[in-house]
Description:
The chain has helices at about 10-20, 35-40, 50-60, 95-105, 125-135, 175-185, 195-225, 230-240, 265-275, 280-290, 290-305, 335-345, 375-380, 395-400, and strands spanning about 1-5, 25-30, 65, 75-80, 85, 90, 110-115, 145-150, 165-170, 190-195, 315-320, 350, 365-370, 380-385, 405, 415-419. The protein is an alpha/beta fold. Strands 3-2-1-4-7-8 form a 6-stranded parallel β-sheet, with helices on both faces. It has a 6-stranded parallel β-sheet with strand order 13-12-11-14-15-16. It has a two-stranded antiparallel ribbon with strand order 5-6. Helix 4 runs parallel beside helix 5 (about 125-135), helix 7 packs across helix 9 and helix 7 packs across helix 10 (about 280-290). It is globular.
Amino acid sequence: xxxVVVGQGYVGLPLAIRAAEVGHEVIGYDVDALRIKSxxxxxxxxxxxxxxxxxxxxxxxxxxxxxxxxxxxxxxVAVVTVPTPLHEGSPDLxxxxxxxxxxxxxxxxxxxxxxxxxxxxxxxxxxxxxxLEDGSGLTAGKDFHLGYxxxxxxxxxxxxxxxxxxxxxxxxxxxxxxxxxxxxxxxVDTTVPVTSPKEAExxxxxxxxxxxxxIALVNxxxxxxxxxxxxxxxxxxAASTKPxxxxxxxxxxxxxxxxxxxxxxxxxxxxxxxxxxxxxxxELANDINNHMPEYVARRIGDLFNDRRRxxxxxxxxxxxxxxxxxxxxxxxSPALRISQLLLDMGAQVKAADPHVVESLPVDTRLVRVxxxxxxxxxxxxxxxxxxxxxxxxxxxxxxAPLVLDCRRRLSxxxxxxxx
Length: 419
């Protein structure tokens, strides 16, 4: 089949390459011309998709990246994997709308369109479908198949990749569900059908809200435990030995990526708009997790105060800019907020992250360096924000004069304090 994947980011690229590998003719469409040129040269920016896989698909002619909307023509299946950010607390669905307008021009009877972008329940049928219908003159469920299948990409996960992770699928009618399930059944090991797109949309938000709320819980417990002089990490280790009724979550400097800082707010927004009620769990979790960077900055300030020194004029080295270990994904990373806070406090801030290579929306005063013994020793404090496996932690322990470990990667000691 001729497959168009709209959006060639962390979600769209793995999908496009997998579809190309099973034999489909795939157009990877993205409006970012620089990204498309890089992909056309066989260069990947996503850890889960190697440059070798891209080059192999290009050589076979089964994958063609493009920033020309005309190349979307003639598709049998189109999948939309565009970003859905928040704008002033409300869902920003402009990329979904623009994608629907583009695809509608090329929509043919019998084709299948799937939305993967995370959004509030009702988007597929109430927003996406009308745009496709108005632009094509066709009717969803009657003339073309339409469904929703939430992305479940976990960057850096070497066990549960795209193929191994069960895929939730849905359709606006039985025929649409069958078409959507048939397509993804060629790409993944397991498909999980649900009654309608609304259930699939809610399932995605439920998954991320569950994580968001539980991370907020352990973050708040960690803050209280520190003031009570209790080792929260040891308590978490002990609780994790219970074989039922407990799931392990660990504290950290905040949440990042596209999912946790954004997706639960989609559900909260929908509940408030449609029911006029507050989703209190989400609002509380947002408050706790959004303020973790400030808490980390305060802890750094406490380290200096205990030694009768000031953050102003100090040298601070941050290890890790990505929001998640072993990835280069720095979207909404708490490290960016922490660096900004420290710079505003007058610190000289440097950062090391071998995975983050794309340009970041950070203060120009932030200096990128390699975590050499000299840089570690020159810092007044080293702050471990992202525990990449590529960092040499023996070097950190040996050369850093003082460390705040936000991931408990190091053993606590006189010069190492754990979040």
